[in-house]
């Protein structure tokens, strides 16, 4: 009889918590706007889930794209076309685009914040699948796996580029949106 009462108490407590959470969501008291800072619980849940997903799903194999200047230049071009508007140019935090300023979570400005310490498989996974509840989209339907690996290669090595690749990187503009090819032709 005591066990039945305990189980019933736990079940009622869980039901009350779920109803309370549902009512809280329906009340609009949990901000849904992009310019509101998320609460600690939301931030913890999102980071914990992302970290666990990356540990489980990010490729562990080495990048199949060879480390060459041409592949790094290709990575710069892909970055300029697909990423710079949010993640910035070689100027980093000093030149946020209007889109990057309005996003929450604030997208890291890679020239300033860097991602060179991330394993390439982690960058590949983030680019391919995106990150839920942020502005990071999935590129799985618009870029091939080879292009995504090429981007991951550039991100891994963006702090130690040869002069030729560095010159291409310096030409990237994050706003207005232009590709490196358009900048080079001017």
UniProtKB/TrEMBL annotation:
SUPFAM superfamilies: Cytochrome c
Cytochrome c domain segment(s): 70-159
A molecular-function term among this protein's GO annotations: heme binding
Keyword tags: Heme, Iron, Metal-binding
Pfam families documented for this protein: Cytochrome_CBB3
Protein's recorded name: Cytochrome c domain-containing protein
């Amino acid at each position: 009889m005591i066990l039945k009462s305990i189980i019933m108490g736990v079940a009622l407590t869980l039901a009350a918590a779920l109803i309370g959470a549902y009512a809280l969501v329906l009340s609009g008291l949990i901000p849904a706007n992009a310019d509101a800072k998320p609460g600690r619980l939301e931030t913890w849940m999102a980071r914990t889930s992302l970290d666990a997903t990356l540990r489980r799903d990010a490729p562990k194999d080495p990048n199949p794209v060879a480390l060459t200047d041409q592949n790094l230049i290709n990575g710069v071009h892909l970055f300029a076309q697909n990423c710079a508007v949010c993640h910035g140019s070689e100027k980093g935090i000093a030149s946020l685009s209007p889109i990057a300023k309005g996003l929450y979570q604030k997208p890291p400005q890679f020239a300033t914040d860097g991602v060179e310490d991330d394993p390439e498989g982690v960058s590949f996974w983030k680019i391919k699948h995106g990150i839920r509840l942020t502005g990071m989209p999935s590129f799985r339907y618009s870029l091939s796996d080879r292009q995504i690996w090429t981007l991951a290669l550039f991100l891994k090595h963006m702090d130690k580029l040869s002069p030729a690749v560095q010159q291409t990187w310096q030409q990237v503009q994050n706003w207005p949106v232009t590709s490196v090819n358009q900048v080079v032709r001017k």
